[in-house]
Amino acid sequence: MPSLPSLPYGSTPNDLAVRAELESLTTEAFRPDLADIDQLPTLDIAKLMNGEDATVPTAVAARLPLIAAAIDAIAERMARGGRLIYAGAGTAGRLGVLDASECPPTFNTAPSQVLGLIAGGREAVITSIEGAEDSADLARADLGALALTPDDTVVGVSASGRTPYAIGAVEYARGRGALTVGLACNASSALAAAADHGIEVVVGPELVTGSTRLKAGTAQKLVLNMLSTITMIRLGKTYGNLMVDVRATNDKLRARSHRIVALATGATDEEIDTALTAAHGEVKTAILTLLSNTDAPTATRLLQQNQGHLRAALAAATTTTTG
After folding, report:
1. pTM given for the model
2. H-only helix segments in the chain
3. Is 102 in the active site?
4. Residues 6+ apart with CB under 8 A from 189
5. Which of 21, 28, 52, 102 is catalytic?
6. Rounded CA separation 219/223 (Å)
7. What are 92-103's pLDDT values in tens digits?
8. 171 counts as catalytic
9. Of these residues, 21, 23, 28, 133, which one is catalytic?
10. pLDDT tens across 210-222, in order?
């Protein structure tokens, strides 16, 4: 086994402060009732873990009003051209990068519209660079390169709620007039206190003490799903529950595009293929041409005039036709 790098240990004031801080966190708490878990049958451990995971949605549900308020504020700014930017370290950072990377294929967002910043940069996505989380300066440098505006939103993500990188990101962003959200899994966290919208999903101690990629990670994933998905719904990226802004970049997504148009319009396969071809694969445009009996250029114009909201464009097309 390769040796780990030698790290200095001691009882400096900083060491003692961090130890005391960790001991006070719910996510770091020790569960005496699980002290013999390694001696249990595998199925029993799996049942215990599944039971722990089942508590996470309830913890998220307790914060839904706060989550909804943050989403409305994010959507308002993104409608004006703002960006959604996640910032975190370790698991929290990776979850932000994951959520951001899924937005372009799912909602046809520009690559720069939803971004994920992780302490330590791209390498930290696949390699643990845990020391990077201790640098608020690194967060300020990462965000400084993005030239924040008041229409941008920065979401700091940290299970503990004390990670300097996440707190530094939120403090820097707020100082530049951007909207800020602090997502943590401990009560009374410094991260939530630093943000305009503090969201603390308290999931309790982990099955494996301090392993916050477990319940805390699940909670963060659920909340990030909500922040991006519901924001995109508010921005007109869906029609009902259909992904009408999906980007067809492979065979599966082309098939999905066809199915979405079919579900929205009830048109025949031939009609759908013709509409998608005329619309250059744009699902919204194809749906609008089929439902309003307009051509692709007219449908494109109506969508542009209505900020990409398909329902509004349909209403405008109907008004034009009946008028």
Report:
1. 0.88
2. 13-23, 42-53, 56-61, 64-78, 90-107, 123-126, 136-144, 164-175, 190-194, 215-234, 251-265, 269-278, 283-292, 296-305, 310-322
3. yes
4. 158, 160, 161, 162, 182, 198, 200
5. 102
6. 6
7. 999 999 999 999
8. no
9. 133
10. 889 999 999 999 9
